[in-house]
Amino acid sequence: MKVFLFSKPFVIVATILFFQFCHTANSQFLESKIDSLLESKYRSTAPGAAFLVAKNGIPIYRKAFGKANLELNVPMRPENVFEIGSMTKQFTAIAILVLVEKGMLDLDDEILKFIPDYPSHGKKITIHHLLTHTSGIKNFTNMKALRDISKKDLTPLELIDFFKNEPMDFNPGEKFKYTNSGYFILGYIIESVSGITYKDYIEKNIFQKIGMESSLYASHSKVIKNRASGYHYRDDYINKMYISLTLPYASGSIMSTVDDLLKWQEALNQNVLVSQNTINKAYTNYTLNDGEYIDYGYGWHLKKINGVLSMEHGGSIFGFKSMGVYIPSEDVYVIGLSNCDCNSPTKITKEIAALVINEIYLNNGNKN
Fold first, then answer.
1. DSSP codes, 201-222
2. Which residues, including other chains, have CB under 8 Å from residue 49's CB and lie 6 or more apart?
3. Nearest alpha carbon to residue 176 among 294, 282, 312
4. Number of separate domains in the chain
């Protein structure tokens, strides 16, 4: 019987090659599973989406599906620029926290400090209430009269005047109720304190600072390289309805790409914009007056995926939907951007995040 003896260097090299092979096989298996999910949801002949998955800040999946423009038959690419809707709220929240760090604001400041004639009905409505959707201020995007002004370009104060006299839904801090009105007011507060427009503040102090070169405050008239066209579905696909972008404003008027949104998440992780103590405030699960948790911080929903904490937020605006999920314990970020409000990426983005978590646990041998 022959006995084969291998040298120690040979064993080391063979072991390294084996683990590299396993890693490659696992990566290809994960990619194949994500492909299967997305190809079934976003058809090649329909409006599509761009998706990116990153681990430790490095993309491990980055693909696009469907069409960026149906009329010109242009395929979607990962570089395409989308309106991200309410994911804008993350940027507004961090902009507020930057001003707090600079000593220009306090989270306990009342809105009367910035809008003296706001009818608060004797109630103390603070910046904290606005950030956490616990202010009780009615959501202006649910008002029927909005259709009468939807195409008008309004100043922030003119839009605030539109909804400020509506009855409050509840006393500040009593309940959590998602409202765009609170983040709209936060945009005006940013302008009041900084002395420049919300658009200029975000572009100068966030986009330019962290190199988000394809991100901007949305515009209908500006020629935007790689812009994806937005669609609705009404028996067939139609071009998105026009609304003035002065309406979503600080609650939903940002455009971006999957690559830029990874830069955003990395800037937060590396404390480029605010300190760790400050970013922790954005990621805190706040409570109501009675101590009940609301599962929301400042601009982020705080949820769980497969029992693991996730920080997430979606967005919806005429013609577009978006979803971003960050898993801090695994440093995994998943972002999906769609150019039809008929085909939301919310559920599938969470499913992809769950897939990645499962693969990590399997590879580490500690799956529950």
1. HHIIIIIHHHT-TT-EE--SSS
2. 38, 41, 42, 64, 65, 66, 76, 336, 337, 338, 339, 343, 345
3. 294
4. 1
- The parent domain of residue 118 ranges over 25-36+64-364
The closest alpha carbon to 338, from 89, 70, 76, belongs to 76
Handedness of CA 236, 323, 51, 186 (dihedral sign): positive
Q: Cα–Cα distance between 228 and 80 in angstroms, integer?
A: 6
As given in the structure block, the two tokens for residue 74 are: 């242009």
- How far are the Cα atoms of 207, 232, 275, 280, 281 from residue 100, in angstroms, in the given order? 19, 39, 11, 13, 11
* 159-162 contact pairs (CB < 8 A, 24+): 159/184, 159/246, 159/247, 159/249, 160/115, 160/118, 160/184, 160/185, 160/188
Identify the CATH number of the domain in which residue 202 sits: 3.40.710.10
Residue 357's contacts (CB-CB under 8 Å, 6 or more residues apart) are 305, 306, 308, 327, 330, 332
d(CA 315, CA 319) in angstroms, rounded, equals: 11
Considering the entire predicted model, what is its pTM? 0.91
The residues that bridge with 311 in the sheet, in sequence order, are: 302, 326
Is residue 161, in this structure, part of any structural domain at all? yes
Question: What is the end-to-end Cα distance of the chain in Å, rounded?
Answer: 44
Per residue of the chain (368 residues), what is the pLDDT tens digit? Answer: 544 455 555 545 444 444 444 445 467 879 999 999 999 999 999 999 999 999 999 999 999 999 999 999 999 999 999 999 999 999 999 999 999 999 999 999 999 999 999 999 899 999 999 999 999 999 999 999 999 999 999 999 999 999 999 999 999 999 999 999 999 999 999 999 999 999 999 999 999 999 999 999 999 999 999 999 999 999 999 999 999 999 999 999 999 999 999 999 999 999 999 999 999 999 999 999 999 999 999 999 999 999 999 999 999 999 999 999 999 999 999 999 999 999 999 999 999 999 999 988 777 755 44
Cα dihedral 68, 70, 71, 75 in deg (nearest 10):
50
Whether residue 51 lies inside any domain: the answer is: no
Domain annotation covers residue 296: yes
- Structural domain includes residue 6: no
